[in-house]
Amino acid sequence: MTDHRLPIRRACQIVRLSRAAYYRRPPASMDRDRDVIEALNRLVTAYGRWGFWKCYDRLRLDGHGWNHKRVHRVYCELGLNLPRRSKRRVPQRLRQPLAAPATLNGTWALDFMHDTLYGGRRFRTLNVIDEGNREGLAIEIGTSIPSARVVRVMEQLIDLHGRPSAVRLDNGPELTAETFVDWCQRRGIALRYIQPGKPDQNAYIERFNRSYREEVLSAYVFESIEQVRVLTDDWLRTYNEERPHDSLGRVPPLTFLPRPIRPVESSYRLST
Asked: HSE (CB half, 13 Å, CA atoms) of 153?
């Protein structure tokens, strides 16, 4: 029978393992802490969202007398102290019928968009339209648009156009934040959230976003936020007053259903 055994040096070279690693013995602490390791692994497997102190308290309740410093050392050696992010749970949303109101200020629709300047700086836009005549009420532009800024834009739009009965929106963090939700409740504005992953349930503003993307954001290379605002200002006036809208009988929004009071300036600049 042929002996195929290799020298240890040659075997380590083949598997690219250092001889020091081959001869290194497992640390004695691994054997000493085997019971702690097994107990922690059982807890983490059963209760993946528990942190260290929850696990330690459970071990104490189970009758283990290990010192918390020892348990924490093993906990860290196992890599269990890494942050574990859970998926944000959205409350169940019911499908809302997408029917355009017959009057203005029946339902406004809100949505966010993203783009990048020539230098790589990212910016966002908050788009607001009136579903009654598809009029673009505001395109707020900035590098950050938190919920407080959303509320400020909405307040200014209400001062100009009156209060909507409801707003249709997705489940973004700015639009589900307590600041925005509480403000809508105080104002008596109903919140019509679409179902997650169903942008077609907010189709009016999604179609508005597409036009804005094709005719402004994707049509130009912007070097500054101010350039985006200037071109957006011109486009928004054209969209509302001159651009024919297919679903409105091929007339502009303000021809289809005029608004009694018109703002002097473009509404997207109001919060600046």
From this structure: 27
Q: What is the pLDDT of residues 163-181, one digit of tens each?
A: 999 999 999 999 999 999 9
DSSP output for 192-225: EEPPTT-GGGGHHHHHHHHHHIIIIITT---SSH
Report pLDDT digits (tens) over 122-132. 999 999 999 99
pTM of the model: 0.63
**Contact status, residue 55 vs residue 75, Cβ threshold 8 Å:** yes
d(CA 109, CA 178): 19
Alpha helices in 78-212 (DSSP H): 147-161, 173-176, 178-187, 203-212
- Contact between residue 157 and residue 126 where contact means Cβ atoms under 8 Å apart: no
Interatomic CA distance for residues 20 and 58, integer angstroms: 40
CA 47/CA 56 separation, integer angstroms: 13
The first and second tokens of residue 33, run together, are 């802490």
Alpha-carbon gap, residue 179 to 193, rounded angstroms: 16
Report the alpha-carbon distance of residue 130 to residue 136 in Å, rounded. 7
**Which is it for strands 135-142 and 166-169: parallel, antiparallel or unpaired?**
unpaired
Q: Under 8 Å CB-to-CB from 16, ≥6 apart: which residues?
A: none
> For residue 85, what is the DSSP state?
P
